[in-house]
Amino acid sequence: MSDDFAHGTGREFTHDPVMKDEIVDxxxxxxxxxxLDATLGGGGHSEAILEDREDLSVLGxxxxxxxxxxxxxxxxxxxxxxxxxxxRFDELDTAMAEHDIAELSGALFDLGxxxxxxxxxxxxxxxxxxxxxxxxxxxxxxxxxxxxxxxYHADELTRIIREYGDxxxxxxxxAAIVAARPIESTTExxxxxxxxIPAAARRTGGHPAKRTFQAIRIEVNGELDALPxxxxxxxxxxxxxxRLAVLAYHSGExxxxxxxxxxxxxxxxxxxxxxxxVCGAVQTVRVVRGVPKRPSDAEQAANRRAASxxxxxxxxxxxxTRGAS
Length: 325
What we know:
Distance between the termini: 47 Å
Structural class: alpha/beta
Number of strands: 7
């Protein structure tokens, strides 16, 4: 067990892993070796993977020191089968090299924010609890939600709220935020956003500030910027027969996941789909499921934060030129 989790505070970080059984099933038949848990969180998915296969070990990455501290305690009984490192998931090459890991048997990405981060008011992720405008997954990062909320031009705010939050009232919300500055807390921000949305639109779709908070969180942490690179590197590192499993929670994440899996599955082929490939594109994965799997009705009822999850899985194959006989 690595000591990289020592940055954690030891405060409670309970993790109820989304689609745990589906993740275990997706990785059940991978080759023996190391599975990358690129978003370790509280270690719930890794625990299930390690329990399922005694010939697998886990390299767990996370930016959150509290998450690493909690995961280390949860996974301590697995001893040397667990290595943790505090870093962003697009630094997986460095983490692998530091621990002499040449290839991966599997790679798991559970994207978005975890329940403990949302539930702790002092982290500033929640629109329901009074807290600072923070939203940093890495508490040591210099950039926070305060810089976005109180520093961005209205046009930039509009862009991120629209692109990262799928919010149709992005321009109205951005203008309201700028007019209300300085905004000092999460509840103050939530109230500004709520009042900027027409009353009729507030009655459906959950809390009115949900999409805006999601967008600001993604911007603060550079989540979508790092994701394509991380997925490509994980696919490259997989051994033949290894699998990539990704849980996405909103359309922006899922579009990127679908795009990077498709790129590996087609080799970037641009030939008309009704004709044989003649461009020499090389396929490196096969798509295990053409349509993303969703949580069961029972899981969605028990855990409302699982409701939007979409699981995509791809399997590494020997490089194959498309169109070859």
